[in-house]
Amino acid sequence: MTTDERLDKLERRARRQGWLILLLLAATAWLSFPSGEGTNWRWLGGLGLLLLAAAVWLGFIKGPKFIRSTIQAQPAGPITTVRANAFILENENGEIRAMLAMDESQSGMPGLVFYDEKSKQRIGLGINNDGVPSLDLCDENGSNRMGLNVDKSGPKLSLYDENGKSRVGMSENKKDGEVELFLNDAQGKPRIVLDINKEGPGLGLSDESGKSQVAMGVKQHGPLLGLTDEHGKTQVGMHVDNKGKGHMLTGPLLLSQVV
Asked: Interior CA angle at 169 toward 166 and 173, to 5°?
């Protein structure tokens, strides 16, 4: 039932009650006159007033105008503005389940947080003082396990383990259109990087320190493979040019020499 319907129902009830009170008062006054000549007419008049009151109560007759005017729906228009620094939603036990507030740790930027039945944060939505919006999803312990944000370079998605280390990352650079996928180890070091840019797709494999050891890709001039030492020098390179001819280079060389 809408608000207008509820108000209309209350208005009809008030009309009936108003008429009922007036008619009952009239019937009481009528029957209170001293008995004498015309007693039968007095009783018939009182009975008529009681029947009229019953008709009003059953809704056959509208209430008086001054009663009808006491309850009216609000005229259509803009909703009144509510200003506050925080809104808190609590359950029947007084436990906080959601909060919309200005985050003082982010220089007064707004944030929306949802809590589970154990008062652990599960969802966080906000914007930092650099204007970067973010969405965080947490596990049953309140630890952040997934983060999504959009900064000046483009959107980014990160998946975290239970220790807070980033294990998977995805990003898109709106400047050059490059898309990257990162797979990190337990220390948060990138071990596998898959990307695609204007030149073509590429795959990089890194050691435990995060240094690239294997690089391969398919570029405009053909497929290539490079094996790199711990100093970042390519020691073995293989390449097939756009004429279908294969090349293999060994020794200290830059990856650019392979192509």
From this structure: 140
